[in-house]
Prior knowledge:
Layout: H1 2-26, H2 29-45, E1 67-73, E2 83-86, E3 89-92, E4 102-109, E5 115-121, H3 129-135, E6 142-149, H4 158-166, E7 180-186, E8 196-199, E9 216-222
Amino acid sequence: MRCTVTVRVALVLLTLFTTWYFAGELYPNKVDMKSLRRIFDNKEEEAPTEEKVKFSCGNDKPCPDGYFAFRIISGAANVVGPSFCFDNIIIMSSVRNNIGRGLNIALINASNGTLIKTGSFDMYFTDVKLLLEFLKPVQDGTLVLVASYDDPGTNLNEEARALFTSFGSSYAKKVHFRDAWIFVGGKGINTESPFEQYLQNNKETNKYDGWPEVLEMEGCIPRKTK
Ligand SMILES: *[C@@H]1O[C@H](CO)[C@@H](O)[C@H](O)[C@H]1NC(C)=O
Ligand SMILES: *[C@@H]1O[C@H](CO)[C@@H](O)[C@H](O)[C@H]1NC(C)=O
């Protein structure tokens, strides 16, 4: 009995070692070592580059004191949802699960930077009434951040367009089916916002089949003081 057990153990060990040996032959470690060394060598050859510093919201430039950093990315076609970063916090995104097709809107207190409310409004299937109920009560001193996803325009009516225009938008009048639009405005600002981008859905110029290129914008918004 004991003899058989010993033989079995020996056989198992032998099998293990042979497998190990052949596996080693088949996947030689040398290649890995070589490529690793190449990576390290190249690193050494390169002049030591400065780490690229990223600022609030991952932006390229820092914001002065008294400003909020923001970054807005529109939806990509009907595939990837938009995202909003404000003061280094992702306030709306697919991961946060608070965005959807249509118009995505974040309302922020312009004095203290607090997120008041977010809303996502399907502009293809849903009545514009819900959007109006969201926009009409917005109080003075509120920042309005907007990003399109898929179709921001089909059900927009004059009243909704006029509200966005009153927040400083230049393009709200033109937003239609599957256009791309990102915008930061405010209730009570009396000028056109510098923070707005728009691309028309146009077969000739679209990046994707039925949609224009993704829009992305970063910047600094002055904190409201009184
Ligand atoms: C900041 O603004 C929010 C939303 O308007 C408000 O609820 C909150 O009380 C304010 N916070 C402070 C510290 O004033
Ligand atoms: C913003 O917050 C301040 C206090 O920090 C408050 O006095 C003001 O009413 C708030 N404004 C809005 C639009 O919520």
